[in-house]
Amino acid sequence: MTQRIVIVGGGAAGMGAAGAAKGTDPTAEVTVLTEYEDTGYSPCGIPYVHGKEIPDFERLFLGVKQAYADQGIDIHYETAVTSIDLSRQHVIAGGKQFPFDSLVIATGFDYADPGVPGSDLSGLYYVKNIRRAMEWDKTLDNVKKAVVVEASPLGLEMVNALVHRGIETHLIDPAPWALSVATDPDIIKPVEDSWVEMGAHLHFNTKLEAFLGGDGGLRAVATSTGEIECDLAVVCTHKVANNRLATAAGIASGSAGGIIVDETMATSAPRVWAAGDCCEIPHGVSKVPIQGLTGSHAYAQGKVAGVNAAGGTRTYQPVYVPWGVVAGKWMIGGVSFSETLATALGIPYVLGVGEGISRARYYPDMTPIRVKLLGEPGSLRLIGAQMVGGEGIKERADFLAMAVRTGITLRDLATMENVYSPPIGALAEPIATAAQNALSTLGS
Ligand SMILES: Cc1cc2nc3c(=O)[nH]c(=O)nc-3n(C[C@H](O)[C@H](O)[C@H](O)COP(=O)(O)OP(=O)(O)OC[C@H]3O[C@@H](n4cnc5c(N)ncnc54)[C@H](O)[C@@H]3O)c2cc1C
User: Fold this and answer.
1) Dihedral sign, Cα of residue 338, residue 339, residue 345, residue 346
2) pTM for the complete prediction?
3) Per-residue pLDDT tens for 141-184?
C-alpha cells in the first residue's frame, strides 16, 4: 500500500526530509505543507542582497516550483497547519484534513520576542521570509537611519549589509561585546574596530526598553543608554524553537525548548519525526541539549528524518557546531566552546593562542589569523576553538569540528601536517602554533 508522508514546513529541514523520503520510497505520497509562498530558497543569502553583494533575490532560489512537482513532491503553499491529531493520524490546515502514515515536523524557529512595548509597530523587520525581504529591500532605499537589535549572527550580517547600503547603522546589545555567547572579546575586537572604521555606531551594555512610534510607524528605539531615532529596526534576537504545534499535540519538548528527538530524529510520538530548528540535539562534548543550530544542521537532520519516515534507517550524530561569519572587515569562526562559554558553563580548559598568516608572508593580500584552542585538562582533548582572520576561517572551523568529534588532542594538533603554498597557505599553520603554545605553557 502507498504510504502517506506529511511534512509540516518547507525550510531546509522540511525540504531535506521531502527529498530524502521520496528517494527512500519513490512510491510514497510525499506532501509538504508550508505557510510561506515559497520553498527551496536560501534565506542565508538575504542579508547579502540587502547589502548589494548579491545583485538580486532570484538567484537565492534553488529550484522552480515545477521541479518539486516533477519529483512527485506535492507542496501546498500558504497553507498553515493549525493542529496535529495524533490519534486520527492527520494534520489540519485551512479546515482540510491531511492524513498521514508518517509525519515530519519541521516548523523551524521564531526570533525571540523582544518583550518590550511597541513590538508590533510597523518599521520592525524580522528577516526570514524571502517575499517579505523583497518588499523590505525596496523600503531600505528610503531608510536613512537603522537600529540592529542584538549582535547575533544575523545581527552581525545585517550591520554589514546596512552599512554597505549607506544607511547610518546603530547596533545595540545588552552584552559588553558582539556575539558574546559564542566569542571572546579578543576575537571580536578587530571586527568591532572595523565596524567603527566603516561608520557603524556600537552601543554595548545597552538594553532595549521600547520601540517608540510616531506618525509614520517607528520613530525611535528607547534603550537603557538613551533614545536612538531611526526609520527601521531590524530585530535579530536569538532563535527560539517553533514547537507550538508539537506541544499542542502532546509531543515532548526539552530543556532547551526544542522538540526532543532520538538519534533517528523520532519524537516522543509514534510515527512522528522532527528536524531542524524546532528540535534540540545533544552537544557532543557537554551532552547537554542545544537548540537554534544552522541551516546545514537543519538540512542534514531533515534528510535523516525523511529517510526514517519512509522506512529507511539512518542516524544523526550529536553536534559540535562549527560556525563562521563575515563581520566588519573580518571573518570569525570557531567550534563548540569559547573561553567565555566554557567559563559560564563551569567547563575547565587549558588554552593555546597562536598568531599566524593566511598565505606566504610575501604573497599579496596575505592577512593575519588569530587562533585560540581550548583543551580538556589532563587528556588535552580539543573541546573548542575560536578564530579571527581575513580568509580560511570556514575550512579551519570545519576541520576543528571534526577534530573535536574524533577526540584529537592539542598534542596531535601541535604536530599536524599542513599545506604550504604561497597563495593559499603559509609555512607555519596557526592551528599548530596555538597547540604548540598551549603545550609550552603547560611545560610539556
Ligand atoms: C536571514 C537568515 C540568514 C541565515 N543565514 C544562515 C547561514 O549563513 N548559515 C546557515 O547555516 N543557516 C542560516 N540561516 C538558516 C537558519 O538560521 C535556520 O537554521 C534554518 O532556516 C532552519 O531551517 P528549518 O527548516 O528548521 O526552519 P525554517 O527555515 O524556519 O523553516 C520553517 C518552515 O516551517 C513552516 N511553518 C512553520 N509553522 C508552520 C505551520 N503552522 N504550518 C505550515 N508551515 C509552517 C514555514 O513556512 C517554513 O517553511 C539563516 C536564516 C535566515 C532567516
Assistant:
1) positive
2) 0.96
3) 999 999 999 999 999 999 999 999 999 999 999 999 999 988 99
- CB of 163 within 6 A of ligand 1: the answer is no
pLDDT at 437: 98
How many C-beta atoms lie closer than 10 Å to residue 202's C-beta? 18
Q: What is the residue with the minimal CA distance to atom 5 of ligand 1?
A: 44
Lookup: cell for 178: 558582539
For 273-290, the pLDDT digits (tens) are 999 999 999 999 999 999
The C-alpha angle 48, 422, 390, rounded to 5 degrees, equals 30
Residues 6+ apart with CB under 8 A from 370: 186, 187, 353, 354, 355, 387, 388, 389, 430
| Range 35-72 burial, b when 16+ CB lie within 10 A, else e | bbebbbbebebbbbbbbeebeebeebeeeeeeebeeee
**pLDDT category, 444, cuts 50, 70, 90?**
confident
Which strands make up the sheet holding 350-357, listed edge to edge? 322-327, 330-336, 382-389, 368-375, 350-357
43 in contact with ligand 1, CB cutoff 6 A: yes
